Amino acid sequence: MLTVASEVEVLTRFGRALADPIRCRVLLALREGPAYPADLADALGVSRTRLSNHLACLRDCGLVVSAPDGRRTRYELADARLGHALDDLRAAVVAVAGDRSCPDADAEGCC
User: Fold this and answer.
1) Cross-strand pairs, 74
2) For residues 10 and 4, what is the distance between their CA atoms, to the nearest angstrom?
3) What's 63's DSSP letter?
4) CB half-sphere exposure, 63, CA atoms < 13 A
5) Gyration radius from the chain CA atoms
6) For residue 111, is it within any domain?
7) What are phi and psi of 75, to 5 degrees?
8) 33 contacts 76 by C-beta, under 8 angstroms
9) If I label 27, which of 6, 12, 82, 83 is the partner at 20 to 30 A Cα–Cα?
10) Which domain holds residue 51?
């Protein structure tokens, strides 16, 4: 069982991963199923190098896992419940404030 401090750390790690639009898009794409980095990079319109850095971050956070597949590496969500959590979070945010946009994320006190 996680302590409150551990729960906060886990949620902070999840929030940090979601704080970047590319990482959000990667997580949403992997919600649909496993994918290869080259395919993800093409689908998201980012360079493979940039995507690799984001995948490493998500892997280090424990949100995605990689598995060798021949000469390639396949990525997927570390746990299927993350996909459900993303769906629930999206639905909750839309229900609460779907008509709002976040101002400059660097501003004091924002998001």
Assistant:
1) 67
2) 10
3) S
4) 27
5) 15
6) no
7) -115, 145
8) yes
9) 6
10) 4-96
Which tens digit of pLDDT belongs to each residue from 86-108?
999 888 877 776 566 666 555 44
Question: What stretch of H or E contains 74?
Answer: strand 72-77
The verdict on residue 41 lying in a domain is yes
Nearby residues of 106 by Cβ (< 8 Å), 6 or more positions away: none
109 occurs within a structural domain? no
How many domains does the chain divide into? Answer: 1
pLDDT tens-digit readout, 28-61: 999 999 999 999 999 999 999 999 999 999 999 8
Q: Does residue 110 form part of some domain?
A: no
CATH number at residue 88: 1.10.10.10
Q: What angle do CA 50, 14, 80 make, to 5 degrees?
A: 90
Could you tell me which residues come within 8 angstroms of residue 102 by beta carbon, excluding any fewer than 6 positions away? Answer: 110, 111
Q: Cβ distance 91 to 85 under 8 Å?
A: no
Q: How far is CA 28 from CA 5, 8, 11, 72, 83, in A?
A: 27, 23, 18, 21, 8
